[in-house]
Design a protein that fits this description.
Nucleoside Triphosphate Pyrophosphohydrolase; hydrolase activity, acting on acid anhydrides, in phosphorus-containing anhydrides; five-stranded mixed beta sheet; NUDIX family hydrolase; NUDT19; hydrolase; alpha+beta
Length: 435
Amino acid sequence: MSGTRPAADTSSFMNSHLCIVARRISRTSNPRVAATRLVTTATSSSNVSVPVVPVHACPDTPRARQQRRPFSSTDTPRNAAAAPLSPKPPCKMTKDGSDELPLPRPSASVVLLSPSNEILLLHRVKTSSSFASAHVFPGGNVDPYHDGEVPPEGHPDKHRDGPAYRLCAVRETFEESGILLAKKDGQLVQMPEKEREEARKLIHARKIKFGDWLQSIGATADTESLIPYTRWLTPVTVPKRFTTQMYLYLLPLTRHDVATKTVIPTADGGVEHTAALFASPQAWLKQADQGAIILFPPQYFILDTVGRHVGGGRPGSLEEESRRFMQQRRKLLRFVREVPTATTALGRAHPSAAVAWADKVISPVPLYMRPGDGRAVLSLSYPGPELEGSDRVGDFERVVLTRFGKKGPTGVEVRLREEVLDEDAQPKEGRLEKL
């Protein structure tokens, strides 16, 4: 919710990643003139549409060739044809016909866990220029005025966790939910509601620097407690691109360390959100499955992976609950840091299994459209053109299924890649993408 944010909202770290392009590739004898059809969602309108538009062949430049490089099985000869399901990072052409890519803007977002391991989501306003009425995590663009600078374009650390990303995550959480992840005398800051709301407005309007305001109340941003949990890089087919650092933040379990009002989120007065609520990841996913709320694929994927370790369970005594919540958090922290990250034989055979969730970078790429239900199958292993060829990759083992429509995505589901390919009778070749 930075004061420099343009009218076309970019408050949520996910705003660009959610406009995933699902495409079918029609092959011809000449790959340079092969026709490609893209099914995309509009980003500049409150009504999400699904136009089908033609895309011309990409120019024969080094950048374009790099983006068109084939994926293949480790057992497939280098000159063999790529399997139909192999994802090819789409080529992006500017108006003048060049292959220059829009630069990804730095942003940060927080998966905030309450003392009972519920997760905070914000409900976007109906009139939002993008993702109207969707539920998102708190977050937004890095603002140099408040947060400091990130490394320049071309520097590998631009796409790594750093001080500016961390301060941005804390500031955006405060601006958007009123929850201040800052400490004073070793405890989270507690402040009167009137003072808190006035500070949110001043910081959002850039009338005072976030760091200066913290210093004025004798507090320090609790950036050390932020736990990196994946980075999302917008696909090249989207005009506005972002490199978004995701974090986990675990509010203390003990209530004496956190005032009740500290963990009761408030909306931003309708500027960007109409509600800010905690619920278990399972409850959020169930509402999305029932069509009660809108979750775009990245939010759904993160809630699904985090929800495998926290949330749920039967209520018990205070002591039993505290013990259960702590055990869940320990499981989650092990999951974030341990490798291999895959559980299946196919997943473990892929290089992405050696990259911990704290370091994974995901730039969704369509594999194919399912013949049965018309949902796109999105691969999550590609890290985007900026990090292609590096050791930063995403998650090969899982895919996301989704169907885009006028009211947003439906039928969103996280599945094991191999199960989906078997169900759709996809060929065995190409199942191990060569990165």
